[in-house]
């Protein structure tokens, strides 16, 4: 099997597909095929079926400056860009299609050629995003002197141990990639100035964060607010380099941890409060009754959604979030929706009783009082739920920014989800291959920002 470039084939059809001799109506046929190296290129010799004096040589591939066939290199680059390794390249083209393929050392050489080009593109995108912040009014939130960033690490190997990790920092307001750092424990290339990382996978996020924030300090970027998940190591690194920075927590991560904590409380049946009072579940010593009013799995799902709702509806007021959260625990989930000094503001007090009203705030029927679907009756689980909500209400200032409102790490995590399309998580790649594949994924992860800024021509 051979592969030809489209441009070469068009050139052949336009100029050489018929005999070039005057008054000869013969057609050209293939006399011989010679492989032009490995990787799919070939040289085809054509002769005329009529006069026999016309001989045409057709090259399926153009030549690079070093004399190599371009089509061979194109197939290697396409394989790498699709996230495949050399083993997949050889299996697909050699074992399945029967084509002669290049050796692993040549494939590795292609990675070396790609490294600088891919890195230059990615670094250019980062520089452009940083310059945009520098050109803004420096008194405006999101500018170089009032930066709002979000950062997180990603491990691209399955399991609890990964040889590779990448830490990225993005502009939270625009989603633009500002800085990145790759941490690798495997590799023997000499392209990177950094030494192979000798720490543990658990410490890699803190190490990557430290490297990135050192660059940010060097560039004189001032981070006013940094958004991250609950990793304490990264938080310490941020405050080490930017002592006045407000470190905010991702609302989605806190909501997830809230559900996990409630699930642990669901399995308990007694507790002792700080003032020494012992509280027990109705069903201590036996299985929960169907309607004992404890923390069920359905209740936990509802509580997690209600937590997210409070975050969103609070706007930019942390106190409003704390108040809404405590109203849930003290009133709503006790099936009390109107009390002295307030009422539930996220649902009507009277709901449709006929089943045909389309507007829940403008009923056509008489209606009926609102009833909570999930009600806590068990004294132990009621107290446990209130204590958990008090703890989460205390995080209001780090969950809600006074100008932005609810904050999450969605911008950085969404870009990390793109990376798995450019390499398999089943492979522990060596450093060079990891850098090239991950950088390609990071470039693709910037397409939304580039499209917003440049329009369709960014592609």
Could you please describe the fold and organization of this structure?
It is a single chain. With 459 residues, this protein is of the alpha+beta class. The protein is built from 14 helices and 16 strands. It folds into three domains: 6-102, no CATH class; 106-250 and 408-458, Nucleotidyltransferase, domain 5 (2-Layer Sandwich); 253-335 and 372-405, no CATH class. Helix 4 (104-134) packs across helix 13, helix 7 runs antiparallel to helix 10 and helix 9 (318-330) runs antiparallel to helix 10 (379-393). It has helices at 6-15, 70-81, 86-96, 104-134, 204-218, 232-241, 251-266, 297-313, 318-330, 379-393, 396-399, 410-419, 431-445, 447-454; strands spanning 28-35, 42-48, 55-59, 147-155, 164-171, 177-184, 223-228, 246-249, 270-272, 278-280, 338-339, 342-343, 350-351, 368-369, 400-401, 405-406. Helices cover 41% and strands 16% of the residues.
């Amino acid at each position: 099997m051979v592969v030809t470039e489209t441009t070469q084939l068009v050139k052949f059809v336009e100029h050489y597909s018929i005999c070039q001799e005057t008054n000869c109506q013969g057609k050209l046929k293939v006399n011989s095929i010679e492989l032009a190296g490995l990787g799919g290129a070939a040289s085809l010799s054509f002769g005329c079926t009529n006069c026999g004096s016309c001989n045409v040589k057709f090259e399926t591939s153009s030549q690079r400056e070093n004399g190599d066939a371009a089509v061979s290199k194109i197939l290697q680059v396409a394989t790498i860009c699709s996230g495949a390794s050399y083993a997949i390249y050889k299996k697909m083209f050699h074992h399945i299609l029967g084509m002669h393929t290049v050796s692993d050392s040549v494939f590795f050489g292609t990675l070396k050629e790609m490294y600088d080009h891919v890195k230059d593109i990615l670094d250019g995108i980062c520089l452009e995003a940083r310059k945009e912040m520098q050109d803004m009014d420096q008194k405006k939130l999101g500018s170089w002197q009032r930066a709002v960033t979000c950062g997180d690490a990603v491990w691209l190997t399955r399991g609890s141990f990964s040889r590779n990790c990448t830490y990225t920092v993005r502009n939270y307001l625009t989603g633009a990639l500002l800085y990145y750092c790759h941490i690798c424990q495997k590799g023997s290339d000499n392209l990177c100035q950094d030494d192979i990382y000798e720490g543990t996978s658990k410490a890699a996020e803190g190490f990557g964060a430290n490297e990135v924030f050192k660059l940010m300090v060097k560039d004189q970027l001032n981070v006013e607010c940094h958004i991250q998940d609950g990793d304490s190591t990264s938080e310490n690194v941020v405050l080490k380099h930017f002592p006045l920075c407000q470190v905010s927590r991702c609302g989605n991560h806190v909501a997830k941890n809230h559900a996990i904590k409630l699930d642990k409380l669901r399995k308990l049946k007694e507790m002792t409060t700080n003032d020494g009072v012992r509280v027990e579940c109705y069903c201590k010593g036996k299985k929960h009754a169907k309607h004992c009013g404890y923390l069920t799995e359905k209740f936990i799902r509802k509580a997690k959604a209600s937590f997210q709702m409070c975050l969103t509806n609070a706007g930019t007021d942390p106190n409003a979030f704390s108040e809404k959260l405590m109203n849930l625990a003290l009133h709503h989930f006790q099936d009390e929706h109107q009390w002295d000094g307030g009422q539930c503001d996220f649902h009507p007090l009277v709901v449709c009783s006929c089943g045909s009203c389309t507007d829940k705030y403008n009923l056509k029927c008489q209606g009926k009082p609102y009833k909570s679907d999930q009600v806590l009756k068990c004294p132990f689980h009621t107290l446990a739920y209130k204590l958990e909500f008090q703890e989460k209400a205390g995080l209001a200032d780090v969950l809600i920014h006074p100008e932005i409102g609810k904050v999450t790490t969605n911008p950085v995590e969404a870009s990390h989800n793109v990376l798995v399309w450019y390499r398999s998580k089943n492979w522990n790649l060596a450093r060079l291959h990891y850098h090239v594949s991950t950088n390609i994924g990071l470039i693709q992860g910037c397409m939304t920002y580039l499209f917003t800024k440049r329009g369709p021509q960014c592609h």
